[in-house]
């Protein structure tokens, strides 16, 4: 009886340990995915900057692999 209970508990522990990382997933929240810079005259030295605010709402690390212009 004790041996079967120990085996059951050990199996359950292993299953939980293997399933843990699969449940962890990154999720990202973006305040605004687009930004319109409007019209800028060619040759102007005016600089346009914008900060995109990102928030990791998941329970794992978010990795940004690339960023491309629209």
Number of E-state strands: 2
**Ends: how far apart?**
65 Å
Strand residues, percent: 5-15%
- Give the CA-based shape: rod-shaped
- What oligomeric state best describes the polypeptide chains here? single chain
**What is the CA-based Rg, rounded?**
24 Å
Report the uncertain regions. none
Describe this structure in words.
- This protein has a domain of 46 residues.
- The chain is built from 1 helix and 2 strands; from the N terminus they run αββ.
- It is rod-shaped.
- The model has no long low-confidence stretch (mean pLDDT 82).
Secondary structure blueprint with pairings:
Elements: H1 2-23, E1 28-30, E2 54-56
Antiparallel strand pairs: 1-2
Short description:
The protein has 70 residues and is of the alpha+beta class.
List descriptors.
31% helix; two-stranded antiparallel ribbon; 70 residues; 2 strands; alpha+beta; 9% strand; single chain
